[in-house]
Design a protein that fits this description.
about 15% strand; globular; alpha/beta; two-stranded antiparallel sheet; about 375 residues; 15 helices; 2-enoyl-CoA Hydratase, Chain A, domain 1; 2 domains
């Protein structure tokens, strides 16, 4: 379902936004009756009443999104992607190409740029705007050369004392045969190791999808933030559903189990902050979304640059080591493991006793 807004751009609606779409249709029809867009026109009171109703409905829907609906918002075709951030949030952007080994992966963009007063190295995952660009970018799924390019440019930033800003937006690393032959897993693993000890501040932000190792390949840093209606997960809900239930239609159930929303990740201490989005999602207000992300990045860089580099690296190391600690304590895990071992011993003993008893019982005469 689509409808044109007052700027003659097409707004696409998600499956759970049918009521909002109907209100927009009514508002558009009333506007056509008042071509001058005058605030004193005959239809103006009706338009204002519908706009108030629409705002209340958006608040109600977007404050109670299910995990699967959050995934749908994160994948919205009009959601801001890397190219929007490069053109409108950063200044003096200079794109850097190639990994000096195989080629230039278009799914990962590296660039020098400026945000606020800070000169930074930008590393981001690009999905592409139109179909041709999406195909060239593998729909945001990077190849190994993309991760090697990212690491090479981060090393360059380390050499010149530039902070690194990564913008994560990928359903996962590209799973093609060629990518595997060129060392996809190793490229991601090396990035994890090198980013954990890179001697410059690193700020990571999930701006859309944060899927699997594809996101982790540029997702190790001193600060990790996620936009309110983005997701960050070990696997896509569809992939999880296919593995567990052999049924892709179980994706909503998988999304519930994966704990992939910003609120859940913050509670698990897997992210440091959830960046608020405008009412109705980032695709409804590009300007405010970019402003919120810029404010978070500049504030984080100011804090991180005040820390001595050795202290920064130690804090990063402790942050990484603490992942998962809030889920279950070591003593609780040991207790659970001990109980399982005891139960297994008892079960085995019971089986042996039963077998011994069976041997001692007299056999019936034939």
């Amino acid at each position: 379902m689509t409808i044109k807004d007052i700027k003659n751009t097409v707004l696409q609606y998600l499956p759970f936004e049918s009521e909002i779409a109907e209100l927009d249709r009514q508002i558009e029809e009333l506007r056509k009756q008042n071509p001058q867009q005058s605030l004193q026109g005959e239809t103006s009171p009706q338009i204002r009443a519908l706009q108030v109703q629409q705002t209340e409905l958006l608040k109600k829907i977007y404050s109670n999104l299910t995990p699967w609906q959050t995934v749908q918002v994160a994948r919205h075709p009009q959601r801001p992607i890397l190219s929007d951030y490069l053109s409108q949030m950063f200044k003096d952007v200079r794109i850097l190409h190639g990994d000096r080994c195989f080629g230039d992966d278009r799914a990962i963009v590296t660039a020098l740029g400026q945000i606020g007063r800070e000169k930074v190295m930008i590393v981001g995952q690009n999905k592409g705007k139109d179909v041709k660009e999406k195909i060239a970018c593998n729909f945001g799924c990077p190849n190994p050369e993309g991760y090697r390019k990212a690491l090479a440019k981060m090393k360059l930033a380390e050499k010149f004392g530039l902070p690194v800003v990564t913008l994560i937006d990928t359903p996962g690393a590209y799973p093609g045969v060629g990518a595997e032959e060129r060392g996809q897993a190793q490229a991601i693993a090396v990035n994890l190791m090198e980013m954990s000890r890179l001697r410059t501040p690193i700020v990571c932000v999930v701006i859309g999808e944060g899927g699997s190792g594809g996101a982790l390949g540029i997702g190790v840093g001193d600060r990790m933030a996620i936009l309110e209606h983005s997701y960050y997960s070990v696997i896509s809900p569809e992939g999880c559903a296919a593995i567990l239930w052999h049924d892709g239609t179980q994706a909503p159930r998988a999304a519930e189990a994966l704990k992939l929303t910003g609120k859940e990740l913050l509670a698990l201490k897997l992210v440091d902050a959830v960046i608020p989005e405008p009412l109705g999602g980032a695709h409804r207000n590009l300007h405010d979304t970019l402003f919120n992300v810029e404010q978070y990045i500049t504030k984080s860089l100011t804090q991180l640059k005040r820390m001595p580099i050795d202290k920064l690296l130690d804090a990063r190391y402790q942050k990484i080591r603490a992942i998962g600690a809030s889920c279950v304590s070591a003593s609780e895990f040991a207790a659970v493991k001990e109980k399982r071992q005891i139960a297994e011993r008892l079960s085995l003993k019971a089986q042996l006793d039963a077998a011994e008893t069976a041997k001692l019982q007299p056999q019936p005469q034939s």
